[in-house]
Amino acid sequence: MLKETMKKVEAAEDLAVKKVRDAEEEAVNIKANAKKKAAELIEKAGEDAKASVANKKEELKKQENAMADKAIKEAESEIKAFKDKASKNEKEAIDIVINALV
Fold first, then answer.
1. Which residue segment(s) compose the domain that 24 sits in?
2. Total number of domains in the chain
3. How far is CA 25 from the centre of its chain?
4. pLDDT band for position 97 (50/70/90)?
5. Cα separation of 51 and 48, whole Å?
6. pLDDT, tens digit (0-9, with 9 covering 90-100), for 30-89
7. Is the Cα dihedral 44, 50, 54, 60 positive or negative?
8. In whole angstroms, what is the distance from residue 47 CA to residue 41 CA?
9. Is residue 28 packed enough to be buried (19+ CB in 10 Å), middle (13-18) or exposed (0-12)?
10. pTM of the model
11. How confident is the model at residue 93 (pLDDT cuts 50, 70, 90)?
12. Is residue 28 part of a domain?
């Protein structure tokens, strides 16, 4: 009976050792997978950030171009108004000179 008990104890110890090894191996695998997923998440976050920056730059460029177009149109409108006024003043000046000569 003692031999049977000893065999059972040894078998239990062997099983315990195996379970500890299996648990350690599983822990190593879990840690490796966690590191891999963390690296993937960090890489994806970096890619997303780059894409976001690129989109924001494009959006700002469009706004800049729209503002520049608006400013050019306003300037062209003012130039036309000045030219029209100058043309009118030129006609008035010619009429004054002609009337003064007559």
1. 1-73
2. 1
3. 40
4. confident
5. 5
6. 999 999 999 999 999 999 999 999 999 999 999 999 999 999 999 999 999 999 999 888
7. positive
8. 10
9. exposed
10. 0.52
11. confident
12. yes
Q: Which residue has the tokens 């800049």?
A: 64
User: Amino acid identity, residue 94?
Assistant: I
Query: Of all helices (H) and strands (E), which one includes residue 1?
Result: none
Is the residue at 38 inside a domain? yes
- Taking alpha carbons only, the member of 92, 70, 73 closest to residue 81 is 73
Q: Tell whether 22 is covered by a domain.
A: yes
Three-class DSSP category at 102: coil
pLDDT (tens digit per residue) in 6-34: 988 899 998 999 999 999 999 999 999 99
11 within domain boundaries: yes
Amino acid identity at 16: A
